[in-house]
Write the structure tokens for this entry.
Amino acid sequence: MSELQKGTMCSEDYKKWFGLEKRDFEDLYEKFIGRSGMRDTSSRTKKEALGMFLLMLRKNLDQDTMGVFFGVSQSVVSDSIQASSKTLRATLVKENLGYQAMPRETALRNHN
């Protein structure tokens, strides 16, 4: 069981490993991962999957090393990163970037 799953990581560790304060990590999780169709698996939680994705972006660790950190296999890390990426593209990106994230009138007014 990882420190993330046990909930014993302090905010300083979140910042060090994931580049976010603990409250920001939790906010990202609640808004975009927690309410999505992504599920916990027998090998990892949704929070761990998000942690793996952010750790990959922040530290560029190889998947075998991340597997040791989270206590899972490389294939679980790979699947988790892919699931998190897909979920964030479908939620975070869709709701915050591009024309679909703004009212039609604003898009028409600002489009050159």
Q: What stands out?
A: Helices lie at 3-6, 11-18, 22-33, 46-59, 63-70, 74-96, 104-110. The two ends are 52 Å apart (CA to CA).
